[in-house]
Amino acid sequence: MTKRRNSLKKLSLLIALAVLLAASLQAARPALAEDAGSAAESAYVTDTSKDVKIESKSGVVLDAAHDIVLYDKKADEKMYPASCTKVLTALVVLENAPDLKKQVTVSQEAIDSLEEGSSHIALVPGEKVTIQDLLYGLILESGNDCANVLAEEIGGSKEGFAEMMNKKAQELGAVNSHFVNPHGMPHKQHYTTAHDLAIIMDACIKNEQFVKIDSALKYKIKKTNKSKSRELWNSHRMILNKYAYYEGVVGGKSGFTKQSKCCLITYAKKNGMDLIVVVMRNGTPHGCVEDTAALLDFYLKKHKVIQTTGGSDFVTKVGNKDVPFTEKDVTDVIVPKNASAEDLKLDNELKSDLELPIAKGDVIGKQYISADGRLVGTTDLVSTEDVRSYLLYIIGAIAAAALIFIAAVAIMMKTSKNRRKKRRNKRLFS
After folding, report:
1. C-alpha to C-alpha distance for 209 and 211, rounded to whole angstroms
2. What is the pLDDT of residue 329?
3. Side-chain half-sphere of 396: how many Cα atoms within 13 Å?
4. What is the torsional sign of CA 406, 407, 409, 410?
């Protein structure tokens, strides 16, 4: 009896090891990252600066719906952003202020630290204003005093708030930027790029409260304990009812210092396109507007939005198994007006480290969509079936059989034990 029990224990141990092996192989499925890499992306035309001639030293057009750069003129060159900084300031405040109606007291430091020539809305120490009022003053009138008060309220100090700005910029992928203040006054360590500003603005337009503030033509701050009411007007020249209005422009932010020259961020929504245009280092505000209008003209008037087919059936080999896959999404892309869906080129780039098992819905690569050699869109490629290796099927079958066997042995042992107990009771009573 003892030998049989020992044998059963050994068998149970072996079966348990087999089950653990199967589980560990399943747990060791490769982590499938979100991106397949940029090898295919680098094969496309990158010099788009000849498409439109602009006077600004740097410029970018971002397809905000798909995070695709359509136009690039020195877009990754580091420059002073001036008051364009304030779109990031507003975003950080909106994400960290639970109550926009909260009243804040203007500190002496916030006013005394303003540099000569700073734009402001004439806040005074001891004045009580709401965070919402300060945000409108920040964006519409580009108030540096508003920026300082908001930084102290949200970050504890201007330095603490700058740390929050840099952290947020890094999270968004604005990796060529560094900020030391909330308003954009010149500093050697305060810089960004046209591309980074477009990335930051892309995050801003996803915030409904930001868009509401940024697109307002005017706003009234009610009488406070230190001041009569103030009427604020939007300083972006291209929004509705302004003298350089461009149809479709929703909002944006302008900036100017002697060091940065004129800079302008613009968000436009028209003809199914969501475009962010950034121009930097132009000689005049009017020059910024002209460059922005030229870029918008090129894409809104000479391009259109079409839909890729999507739902294609592809198969690749991983090990000795076929893995079927398809596009995760049907994608809208911006193409020249004379292009059609048949003119699009689809390049699939699969991950180089794919291993079985692969689960249905796993991202296994990326599809790059191009027109005339220019990248116009991307989408993830996903597996359409669960695919496992033969080894796992075998181990799984062994594990299943083992579990059945263990259950059967347990039942037999329990039955045998009950029988012995009945015989023992019978002898006892007899």
Report:
1. 5
2. 83
3. 9
4. positive
Q: How far apart are CA 92 and CA 95, in angstroms?
A: 5
Domains of the chain: 30-46+309-383 (2.60.410), 58-305 (3.40.710.10)
Q: Within 10 A of 4 (CB to CB), how many other CB atoms are there?
A: 9
Burial of 286-316, coded b for 16+ CB within 10 Å and e otherwise, reads ebbbbbbbbbbebbbeebbebebeeeeebeb
Task: Tell me whether residue 338 is exposed, middle or buried, using C-beta atoms within 10 angstroms of its C-beta: 0 to 12, 13 to 18, 19 or more.
Answer: exposed
Beta carbons of 48 and 377 less than 8 angstroms apart: no
pLDDT tens, position by position, 186-198: 999 999 999 999 9
- Which range has the worst mean pLDDT, 229-233, 256-260, 424-428? 424-428
d(CA 408, CA 397): 16
Q: Provide the angle, in degrees to the nearest 10, between the axes of the packed helices 2-27 and 390-429.
A: 150
**C-alpha angle 124-129-131 in degrees, rounded to nearest 5:** 125
Within 10 Å of residue 145's Cβ, how many Cβ atoms? 25
Q: Where are the beta strands (DSSP E) in 222-260?
A: 230-233, 249-257
What is the band of 34 on the pLDDT scale with cuts at 50, 70, 90?
very low
